């Protein structure tokens, strides 16, 4: 008896970058900033961050979005980075010649980066929450203007001789 295999629609797509020539700690510093954000927010964050590790991560996020649009035929506005992790890769070891016939080792660390994107339009668990997007402090506090004590007008502290 033949059974018909269930065809579940994928909701997650991943991209794996191996042997990226950045240390795992420096890449983790960038990955922690983008985890849980939407695709469009992630691209803006990565373009504005001043770290060298941003460019390979930017390429991986862009590749994961391309995979999602091809495999799941999903729109880029519905993509969210659900999981992003950095693992330590192999260390490239070289010897640098120094004075008097000595040599010093040069160690270049590498890392493996995995980025998993989820399409929230296909998943039932995600519901848009407006309270997280609006700042709650906007109407509670008003700006307080202090008198300028360094200006020449008025009776400031610095007017006395």
TrEMBL record:
It comes from the Eukaryota. It comes from Tabernaemontana divaricata. Its main location: plastid. GO terms for molecular function: rRNA binding; structural constituent of ribosome. One of its GO terms (biological process) is translation. This protein binds specifically to 23S rRNA. The globular domain of the protein is located near the polypeptide exit tunnel on the outside of the subunit, while an extended beta-hairpin is found that lines the wall of the exit tunnel in the center of the 70S ribosome. Belongs to the universal ribosomal protein uL22 family. InterPro entries: Ribosomal_uL22, Ribosomal_uL22_bac/chlpt-type, Ribosomal_uL22_bac/org-type, Ribosomal_uL22_CS, Ribosomal_uL22_sf. It is found in: Plastid, Chloroplast. Part of the 50S ribosomal subunit. One of its GO terms (cellular component) is chloroplast. SUPFAM superfamilies: Ribosomal protein L22. This is Large ribosomal subunit protein uL22c. Gene3D superfamilies: Ribosomal protein L22/L17. The lineage of its organism: Eukaryota, Viridiplantae, Streptophyta, Embryophyta, Tracheophyta. It holds the Pfam family Ribosomal_L22. Keywords: Chloroplast, Plastid, Ribonucleoprotein, Ribosomal protein, RNA-binding, rRNA-binding.
